[in-house]
Amino acid sequence: MTSLLTDINSNTSLTISGSKDGSVHWKESVEFVKFSPSFATVPMAATGGMDNKLVIWDLQHSTPRLLGNCVHTFHGHLDAVQAISVSTNTDFIVSVSVDYTACV
Asked: What keywords are assigned to this protein (predicted)?
């Protein structure tokens, strides 16, 4: 596994790592991973990568090597997603892409 970025949730023992080896759910490289804030009611994660998508995952029932249920896939970037940020109140997610756009 080629780990590109890792995020650790401070309230759980969960760790997410990006990969480009196709070992989990993606055919393209995962470039960025981000947990929801530790105080969020439902543990969530967001991933973005070379497939130009932002994917939101429900981690409520995640298990080792299985990220959880895909809640929503956002399409809108014309190139790879390079960064993700979650607002303090968890109402918004911003993704930034190589295509020089930010999507909320």
From this structure: Repeat, WD repeat
Task: Decide if 1 is inside a domain.
Answer: no
| Three-state SS at 102 | strand
Q: Mind listing the pLDDT tens digit for each residue in 33-64? A: 887 777 777 778 888 888 899 988 887 766 65
Task: Give the position of tokens 């080792």.
Answer: 64
Sign of CA dihedral 53, 81, 34, 37: negative
Tens digits of residue pLDDT in 1-15? 333 444 555 555 556
The residues with which 73 forms a beta bridge, in sequence order, are 55
The residues, ordered by sequence, that sit 6+ positions from 81 with a Cβ below 8 Å of its Cβ are 31, 32, 48, 49, 52, 53, 54, 95, 96, 97
